[in-house]
């Protein structure tokens, strides 16, 4: 499974990229608002740090303006992935952009039929939102499983399942078990993957016992 980080915070991205665990980045308008910096500048900077796909979301909803914005954004760097909403106009733009060799991430996916349409439109990534479905009382992980089954039924689909709206370590684990190709994870959740209370407890004991040996490693 590939790990993308879901943030527009360049400092967080730098830290994770230096660890070598980052395969890409996703951003969205809400994350850009939080970063409070010029959008194109953020994307350019991220693309200088990360070689993998960097999703930059269009801010328009009609086909013409989506395409206009996509042309501007994709000029920033070769690894820019244009993120379009899962609407009729978004899918039209997906088809046009992917036919042109541009990577496209179709976002705000909440159903398997939507994911089927995105694959037909040539999406590079489909982003099903697990956490937001869970919040509304629908099992988000079931959607990942359904999309995996459907995509595997058709060998001509190359769209990767990008599990999005991830809230915790269990979402990452279950998305991997369900066969998601990518998980886009907030920095705090990505860092929390390392945590286990028995690791902390075990380390505490080893550190204490080592001190009792009175030895040093030099
Ligand atoms: C995906 O690309 C989105 O940016 C993101 O995962 C949305 O997550 P949220 O539901 O926590 O806002």
Automatic annotation (TrEMBL):
GO process terms (BP): carbohydrate metabolic process; ketone catabolic process; pentose-phosphate shunt
Descriptive protein name: Probable transaldolase
A Pfam short name: TAL_FSA
Alphabetical UniProt keywords: Cytoplasm, Pentose shunt, Schiff base, Transferase
Cross-referenced PANTHER family: FRUCTOSE-6-PHOSPHATE ALDOLASE 1-RELATED, TRANSALDOLASE
Organism of provenance: Hansschlegelia zhihuaiae
Localization in the cell: Cytoplasm
Gene that encodes it: fsa
Pathway: Carbohydrate degradation; pentose phosphate pathway; D-glyceraldehyde 3-phosphate and beta-D-fructose 6-phosphate from D-ribose 5-phosphate and D-xylulose 5-phosphate (non-oxidative stage): step 2/3
Residues of the active site: 83
EC primary class: transferase
Cytoplasm among keywords: yes
């Amino acid at each position: 499974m590939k790990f993308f980080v879901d943030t527009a915070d360049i400092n967080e991205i730098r830290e994770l990229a230096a660890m070598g665990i980052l395969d890409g980045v996703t951003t969205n308008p809400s994350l850009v608002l939080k970063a409070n910096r010029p959008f194109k500048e953020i994307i350019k900077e991220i693309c200088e740090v990360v070689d993998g796909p960097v999703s930059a979301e269009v801010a328009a909803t009609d086909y013409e303006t989506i395409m206009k914005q996509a042309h501007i954004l994709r000029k920033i760097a070769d690894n820019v992935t244009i993120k379009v909403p899962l609407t009729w106009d978004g899918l039209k733009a997906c088809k046009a952009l992917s036919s042109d060799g541009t990577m496209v991430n179709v976002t705000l996916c909440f159903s398997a039929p939507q994911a089927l349409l995105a694959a037909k439109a040539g999406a590079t990534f489909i982003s099903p939102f697990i956490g937001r479905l869970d919040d509304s009382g629908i099992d988000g992980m079931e959607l990942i499983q359904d999309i995996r089954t459907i995509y595997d039924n058709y060998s001509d689909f190359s769209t990767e399942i990008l599990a999005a709206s991830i809230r915790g370590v269990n979402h990452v684990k279950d998305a991997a078990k369900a066969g998601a190709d990518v998980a886009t994870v907030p920095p705090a959740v990505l860092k929390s993957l390392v945590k286990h209370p028995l690791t902390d407890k075990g380390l505490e004991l080893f550190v204490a016992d080592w001190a009792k040996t009175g030895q040093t490693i030099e």
